[in-house]
Amino acid sequence: MYASVIQVVVILLLYSTQESGAPSPFSLPGSLAALALSFVGYFLVSLAAFRLLSRGLARNGPAWAFVRFDRTVSRLGVLAVFLSAFYIHGLGVKGWMEALWPVRRLPTLGALLVLVFFFLHLYALWSFSWGVYSQVQADPLPRRGYVRSNVRLALPALFPWLVISLAADCLDLLPWPPLSRFLGSLGGQFAFLLAGMTLLVLFGPVFIIRFWGCRPLPASPARLRMEALCARAGLKYRDIVLWPIFGRQMITAGVMGITGRFRYVLVTRGLLDQLTPLETDAVLAHEIGHVKKYHIPFYVFCFLSFAPLFFIVFTLAQWGLGALEMRFALAGAPDALSPTVRSASLALAGICVFLAWFRYLFGWFIRNFERQADLFVFQLVPDAMPLVSVFAKITRQTGRPPEEPNWHHYSIAERVEQLLLCQEDKSRYARHDRKVKRAAAVFALGVVLLAAGAWGVSLEPVQRGAGAWLVRGTEARADTLLERLETLEPARLRILGELYYVTGKEEKALRVYERLVKVEPGDAEAWNALAWMLATAREERLRNPDGAVKAALRAVDLSRSPHILDTLAEALYAAGEYGRAAQVSMEALSKDREGAPYYREQLAKFHRAMEKERGKEGKEDAAR
User: Fold this and answer.
1) Strands 239-243 and 253-256
2) Contact 67, 400 (CB under 8 A)
3) Is 614 buried (19+), middle (13-18) or exposed (0-12) by CB count in 10 A?
4) Is residue 155 within 8 Å of 210, Cβ to Cβ?
5) N or C: which end of the chain has fewer CB within 10 A?
6) CATH no. for residue 531?
7) Does residue 336 carry a pLDDT above 70?
8) Where are the beta strands (DSSP E) in 40-193?
9) In a shared domain, residues 31 and 155
10) How far apart are CA 399 and CA 414, in angstroms?
11) At residue 395, does pLDDT exceed 80?
12) How far apart are CA 164 and CA 442, in angstroms?
């Protein structure tokens, strides 16, 4: 389950960091052919890997194959992620999908199609792995049941993202400017994410239980004993259900849900068949410990905490790449960073931060929460031996060495050792409890500071200050180039203008853009940059609304891209032509649904100006 979450998040990061509207480097037939060849190649690699493993199993036995089986599945899963990165950033499939009308209206569908193709790779992986699995398991599932169990276990990782993203897309289509403005703000986005996650955590278990095919555990002595243990622990729940995952093999249980009204206790057939009543009590006590120690709400909080961290890293990465582009351009290599390199670099930065956060920070809490739940058994079970016995049975069933490390659990040997030590000295349990509570408090404080930082980096003054810091050392080179402005080629002029704009040196930027439109009169972006400067310069002496309108109209004659139309609207607004500004902004909105919150905010600004002007005219008429 954790592996599926990581893989889904990585692919979503890869997809979201690819520039929207970026053209594919291949034709559509070429992209489809490369896609098919890559999938066939993955198919053959997976088939060969498990055939080799099957031959090794025949020579070395099941104990040798158990560890290598997991390693092979993990590596092929990583290969599927790398292939997805190739499809997104190498083949540019996002650009082809954005050409489809449904994807333009609901952008989430594009990411969903990429994820579906990724899961087709995993489907092939699970199908081929069954041959080895069936040889090492004592009571293996048939191939269809094994693949279906893997699919059922992995797909809920998509559920939170899919629901929240589709809801955001649908809300974005509503013609209600106040809602669009709110959702377009940083605070609105976080509030929407928080509300969506809260609803999912509260009601999601109901849908996941049905997706997994869980059924209420029939009345039996085992159920009565579980109900009695839950009552003794004060655990409220909706039902105790049979978890039909991997047939009768998996010895496990779980508790899903934050509130008692929508909380389920899950037990597998393997647990009921292979454990004694006291061992079942120990496993259930462990799961109850997760609830009593508030681990599930903390997991949700931990996932939400990644949002401000990613925002900060992504913003800094964008600034850093911008600084690199400027340095390359000033050195005479303006095209050193292609759009593919930029988007791949942003994706890599986000993925590295996510993996570090998930693997080390979140992983530390998961391991220590598991230990906390292990030690909670002393609250409900006389001693640790039943749980120690369960660990021994799991070790025999899986064939894995008890010392085998695990990033989200301590090894079975370590867990047994801690249980036995705590049985001799109960104060160890209280000490571990205090350690986890202190760490959680420090983490919560860090998240608050991080969220404050995320809010701060969205402010324009901070952006400009950080931009100036990132390009420090290039100003001297830039000023040298400015002295010979008349001799510079267009590529250097563009980057020089951007450099001065980012660092707030508007007068110098204006000089560069005025030169650029003379050198490149057919460049829509050059006229657009000049128009924006003349319409929005912070220094009033540099503003020229009439000149901005003329430059913007020239840009629109060359290209009616949404951002160029927006510049014309802003120039018209600066010139006092609010009605025309609103009309142009409406056209920009119709061409760029992803930017709808921004354009609706612009429209609201123009309409306020129109109302204010009408009110002023009304007062003048009344005075006359």
Assistant:
1) unpaired
2) yes
3) exposed
4) no
5) C
6) 1.25.40.10
7) no
8) none
9) yes
10) 17
11) yes
12) 29
